Amino acid sequence: MEYARTIPLQIGLKVDHRGQLYKIVDHHRQEHSVVQYVIQSLSSGQTKRVFRHEICDASVTSMFNRLTEVTIFQFVHESSQSDDELSSITFTQGVPEPVVEPEPVLAPEQALEPEPVLEPEPPLKKPRFKEMPNREHIDMLAQARVEKTTKQQTDWGVRLFRGWLTENQYNDKFEELESSILNDRLSFFYPSLQTKKRTDYSKSALVGIRAAISRHLTSPPFNRNVNLMKDNAFMTSNHVITGMNKTLKRAGKDVTVHKKPVAEGDVQRLYSSGVFNTDSPVTQQNKVFWDLMLNFGRRGQEGLNTLKKSSFGKFKDDKGHIYYKMTYNEANKTHHGVDSHENRQEVRLYEKSEDINCPVASLDFYLYKLSPKCNALFQQPLLYPKPNCWYVNQAMGKKIKSNDAKDFK
Question: Which InterPro entries match (predicted)?
Fold first, then answer.
């Protein structure tokens, strides 16, 4: 009778014995079955002999660790077959004995190479300059060289020229015309100008229209290298406009009309009317507006909306007199505040200690009542003022005091 054969566990297999990991290093056979296995501890290296039922495949053990308590309980109480029991089972004749294929051993050149260690990239060097601007930003900066009022004057002059070209059946796209053709168009355009009331333009208006067209041609996106006032190509049109100005002067029409100064009696009536009282937010602001315009407002209301609390500084001269002056180079449409030589004549607002309407005292009181959350010098008045704050955290619009200025008259 042929004995039953069991498939032996492979040498080198990791097994579990009493909760510790071991490795099979050898086995002892008796006839056709394995009697004992020689295992070696993976932690201490100690070897021992055990029977088959005393060890278990480590991968199977890890699977059992994930079983529930009920499943483990059922597994423990089930009967298992030992090596001796398995030896009593005979294989059917004609059925070949299972063959265990050995694990393939990689050749040295087929062994896995360790992954290369990537060195960290060096930190990027901070750029010395800003990111290169696009063309739209360049054009915007080029347009910023002129003030808003100057741009409005440019648009007005260009609109007049386009209207004349269209009315006389010319193409109104004059920006790409050759200098000789453009000069010819301008020579006929200047004498045709008149106001909506059908009167002649003044000398300053004619010069302003010519300058407006020239600015338009030299600005983005055209950027032409021309000068309507100085280039020889435009000599004819310049002779025409010079002759028109002299004709106006001979006819007595070139008269510059200046606005009359405020009479002293009118100033007294303003103070007596109560519009400059210092007991309310609106009238207090009227008083400061009047003092600043009278002393610093050489160009009307231009730039008032850009004034800050810090725009005026308080100082004392060598004689001990207190005054306010502007703390930066004032910019306007002819002087851009870049060169300090543009404002050589320093304007000062002096204290009048014996005057009840002292401008320095009014400005001191006004600055004290402004909202600390807003940096603008002209702020919206509160409808119901607080003891220490009379104004809202909001700057006034571009037309500062335009309505009140009419009430002053």
Answer: MAVS
